[in-house]
Amino acid sequence: MRIKSYDITLDFDFNGLTYQGLETVSVETEDDLVLDAQGLEILEVEASGKPIPFGVEKDKVRIRTGKFSGEVKLKFSGKVKDSLVGIYKAPYDGKYVITTQFEATHARKFIPCVDHPAYKATFKLRVIVNDWLKVISNMPLEDVRKEGDKVVHVFKDTPPMSTYLLYLGIGEFEEMRNPGLPEIIVATVPGKLAKASLPASMARDFIRSYEEYFGIKYQLPKVHLIAIPEFAYGAMENWGAITFRETALLADERSGFSQIRRAAEVIAHELAHQWFGNLVTMKWWNDLWLNESFATFMSYKILDKLYPDWYMWGEFLRDETAGALLKDSIPTTHPIETEVKSPEEVEQMFDDISYGKGASILRMIEGFVGEEEFRRGISSYLNEFKFGNAEGRDLWESLERESGKPVSRIMPEWILRPGYPMVSVEYDGGKLVLTQSRFGLLSDGQEVYPIPLTMEVNGKIIRDVMDTRRKEFEVGALNTLNVNLRKGGFYRVLYRDLEPVFRSNLTPEEQWGLLNDYFAFLLAGKVTFEEYSKVLRHFMTSDHHLPVTELADQLSLLYAVNSGKYGNLALQFHREQVRRWENRSDMVGKRTFSILATNLARMDLNYSKTLGAKFQEYENLDGDLKAPVAVAYSVFEGPKAVDVMLEKYRTSKFDEDRLKILQALLSSRYPHTVVNVLSMVFTGEMKRQDIARSLEYTTFYPDVRDAVWEWLKIHFERVSGMYSGTGIFGRALSDVIPLLGLGRETEVEEFFRKNPLKENERGVRQGLEIMKALSRLK
């Protein structure tokens, strides 16, 4: 079957949240035409000007065309849902916009269609609405005309694209237009355009950089960047009409580096999709990584080029590689490319493996084949398959042609298999002996991976492919040693003797890698706390933000696990490092101080009292200082802070500011404060989009964890239902359960066994498995 085009007219009752649809599908088929349609009422179907029989069965409409080539017309009606997928209403300030979110398989909730990425077609869209509303879609407007008491908005035809990339937004949008080719348009609900200039400027720079890198122009005449007031995902790459959470798009010079960098990374990621995913699309969702891994990798690559002082490849390790290494070391992992059979399985694919591991493997392969060869391979791949669909092996073959390296032999071993190796390094009588095995937090494996090995021995760089269990190198006397240069390979390294490593001149990435590896070894029981402490103490006084923030993450977690056992060490580190970073004026320095100060405020009441006193001047604080000050105020003042902070939360104009206050309230030491704030999601004061990740801020103090666990059990069905049709709640639980379940491991396992979540089961299992490893440290 081949779908050529969809011609769609939709007449909306905006206040009634319903619409009437007329759709013409141009199709060639050898059998009856079967369209996906969920929650739609199919009223009439005709072909060649005559009515034709049809039947609705299990979210599909079967139209009795037999072998057919021509146009099929459908009349149907639909409803705008109070959900976060399909076509739904996104509320704000007592009003709402109508918006859509179709990835992965939710376009069927909007129109009858073949809701499959391989069935690309052009889309012609006409939307009839009240004259006080604006309408946004993928393409620019072709015509706007009055028709009775409504207005018809006619959009130009799209290029051939998959159904999940279609977009429609209706509401009282305000727009800031940046002319050019393409035209950059930032759209928000009323009153939010003050933070639109910076993202528009960044988007222009990103598009130009991608065009230069890929050697292919952006294909549409415009791109909308749309801030949606209620949005389950971070952003969505609809071709020419990209949707974002407010906090993933809007920023200005006062926002602070954390917010500016997040907006830049998300915008760069979604714009990379305009080539990877939109121009060339995977044939089926098992190759989701072709979209997400590449958009992730390219976003950091382009940001590193445009903002070299941001140290983006270090951020890449923190943001992407760390989570992937953790989630890929437990039994509930999956290959980067894996078989997907159902919509529920698709939703669970949007995880640290498809994003972080895939991007980390691409970084490793780029290092193996060379930057220019990698770029040529990507450009060749995009040119060969543009406006079409491709598979993973198409990419490997393109990279191999351009580089002359055995990419097709190495890539499947990393893409089609789960897990990754640990390389054990020993020095024995002039020989360096390397042994590999699959690393696991709970159990190891015996698999052998083809590792693009990089190491420095006595100042000499050695590159090799280690595709055997054991490999020896003659090195003579050993002075310095460093395996996995710049942490470019997706594997961990366990040294039997750390002294040659400590004598080496390690880069910040390599320091981060050593710290991250040894904390994982501690969790897995492969090293004692004393052995881990050797690495930790070696970097305790580091002056680079990458190892410092890694240590801050580790020691903050250990404090939360058992403050009596690990508290003194955590306090010693944070007090010393806060003094080192508190007067930094550069953006990275201010953000590092923000992380350290937030942690210390939770651990040290004296410090939270001092820092929290600055809350009186909150509005005038630097953007990166607001979060730790708000947390400190909440921690020290406790219930006395609630009314003041809630007033600020309710009167803040931007979600960027509201989230800082919300997260501070949830960082309180007082259990009743935290559960009362969580319950704001039921009154509408907290957005549904925020509840899943908000749970992460409640797990630092044991007493609060007890109360939050009881709250979650009581409200589990209601909270999980807010994310129905997505895997978002499960992904959040994978990070929440490990601490939330400490001391009640059996109870937590039993609860989730009795309360399964379809699209979220993988995330729940991940959380339970990491919980088991973390429990060893109690």
UniProtKB/TrEMBL annotation:
The active site is at E270. The keyword DNA damage does not apply. Residues 5-165 form the Aminopeptidase N-like N-terminal domain. GO terms for biological process: peptide catabolic process; proteolysis. The keyword Hydrolase applies. GO terms for cellular component: cytoplasm; extracellular space; membrane. Its EC number is 3.4.11.-. Zn(2+) binds at H269, H273, E292. Residues 483-772 form the ERAP1-like C-terminal domain. GO terms for molecular function: metalloaminopeptidase activity; peptide binding; zinc ion binding. Residues 204-414 form the Peptidase M1 membrane alanine aminopeptidase domain. The record marks Y355 as: Transition state stabilizer. Keywords: Aminopeptidase, Hydrolase, Metal-binding, Metalloprotease, Protease, Zinc. Its cofactor is Zn(2+). It comes from the Archaea. PANTHER family: PROTEASE M1 ZINC METALLOPROTEASE (PTHR11533), PUROMYCIN-SENSITIVE AMINOPEPTIDASE-RELATED (PTHR11533:SF174). Belongs to the peptidase M1 family. This is Aminopeptidase. It comes from Metallosphaera yellowstonensis MK1.
